[in-house]
Amino acid sequence: MEDNVALAAAASRAERIVVAFALDPQLLASDRVGAPIVQTFFEALNALRAQLRSIGSDLAVLRGDAAQELSELAKRTGARLLYYNEDYEPDAIRRDASVSQILRAQGLEVHAHLDHVCIAAEAISNESGDAYRVFTPYARRWRDAYAVAPVLPVDSLGAARGQFIGASDLGRTLDVPAPEAFGFRSSPNYPPCTPNHANDALDTFLAEGGDVDRYADERDFPALDSTSHLSVQLRAGTIGIRTCFARAFRVARDVRRRPSVDTWISELIWREFYFMVLKRFPHVATGPFIPAAAGIAWRNDEAEFSAWCGGRTGYPLVDAAMRQLNETGWMHNRLRMIVASFLTKDLLIDWRWGERYFEQRLADADLAPNNGGWQWAASTGTDAAPYFRVFNPVLQSKKYDPDGAFIRKMLPELRDVPAPAIHEPRAPIVDHHLARERALGAYAAVLGKKR
Ligand SMILES: Cc1cc2nc3c(=O)[nH]c(=O)nc-3n(C[C@H](O)[C@H](O)[C@H](O)COP(=O)(O)OP(=O)(O)OC[C@H]3O[C@@H](n4cnc5c(N)ncnc54)[C@H](O)[C@@H]3O)c2cc1C
Ligand 1 pocket by C-beta < 6 Å: which residues? Predict the structure, then answer.
């Protein structure tokens, strides 16, 4: 409820505010969600409810078709205005259009607000008015726009205090279910997800001498674990993106700290970039950004896919990374790049298989950055890695986990293997050098022969 644009806007107009969340059983039954994200979302919902209850209100938890449920809630509570935060995912855009249409027909005023990114997708264009396809000029333009008109956090909770509907006036509301109610298994290893955790994580990360000051040097080394872990919170909305940018730019005023925090700011802009790409090129949600890449002859070997998912490729760093994903619901960015390159290049498996598996296993699974990351690794996206850049999993391992500390942590069976031997493949499912040649052939056949 802190730094939430729709809530702040509602507070400026409404006398009473009902906060609602509609659970969609169809989405929960689909293969696009998994236990980690369900657990973290439900935890965030419980925290939101606790916050509302502590001030005498409650959260309206609904279940079913969002349009129908919200329509009934509006009737029950006499609501005349609907405020919501926009979503850039094609399915969500369709859902929100249907909700808006039905509630408008019922006589409500409907207001959509930009919340999940700082700067709207359409607001940053090149000289011809087209969307950027390359990150660097986009980021330059983004920084110029932000410098002219910084998008500051909104004090939504402060603004709305005293206006939330009384719990007794809200009427019927459901419990936030346990993930098990939808067939998901909870785990204490998945990241915690509440506003308190989010604020603490940001404070700790940005504190003088905190991880942000080592970020530029250390962010590629999984064993050092010096990234913010805020992706889960940004995904669930337990922290606002405006807050993250504003706090980071404040740190950057200190010239000593600027270079490192600026690297972190760039990563947040990558997030904005991929949301922009999804909004302005919605075809990426289902297919490659580069049309010709639709012709890549993927091998799609089920047994190899299953070995990749289960961390049984024989390449220690790839397997350690997949174990981190499967056990904790999160994976370090460098490792996401390595396992995605391995799946799409070494195994020649369609990036959409990997994208889907990540959706099921990541607590921060988010269509825009997930799709962007996968299409980058598969060389099918905007500003993607050139197809002839195929990560060598052994060299990546030597470079980014030099003493094998991360491998040893995730693969205790290799505990006693010293570096550099720990980086070497053990019963690998493919030979990297042969696989690389095979991938280059398949890619060159459709994307040209430049090498
Ligand atoms: C194949 C692949 C799949 C990915 N899937 C997701 C996903 O589903 N959800 C997701 O949030 N991120 C995804 N990423 C991006 C990135 O890996 C994660 O955002 C990051 O690892 C989260 O850890 P952190 O919060 O500690 O990041 P930090 O390094 O602390 O970065 C801060 C924030 O910047 C954003 N960010 C960082 N790196 C990227 C990036 N490369 N692209 C876009 N935004 C970025 C995230 O919001 C992150 O929380 C993916 C990357 C790849 C290569």
Answer: 219, 227-231, 234-235, 267-268, 270-271, 274, 333, 336-337, 340, 358, 362, 364-366, 369-370, 372-374, 377
CA–CA separation, 187 vs 449, rounded Å? 47
If asked whether residues 123 and 103 sit together in one domain, one would say: no
Q: Which residue puts its alpha carbon closest to atom 19 of ligand 1?
A: 231
Q: Residue 322's domain is classified under what CATH number?
A: 1.10.579.10
Please name the residues in contact with 339: beta carbons below 8 A apart, sequence gap of 6 or more.
308, 318, 321, 322, 325, 331, 354
Instruction: Check pLDDT > 70 for residue 450.
Output: no
Q: How far is the CA of 281 from the centre of ligand 1 (A)?
A: 20
pLDDT at 430: 98
> Same structural domain for residues 389 and 246?
no
For 245, the domain range is 116-153+194-280
- On whether both 264 and 338 belong to a single domain, the answer is no
- Which tens digit of pLDDT belongs to each residue from 249-258? 999 999 999 9
Residue with tokens 């909305």: 237
Q: Does the pTM exceed 0.90?
A: yes
Give the max Cα distance, the chain. Answer: 70
pLDDT tens track for 290-311: 999 999 999 999 999 999 999 9
In a domain, 434, yes or no: yes
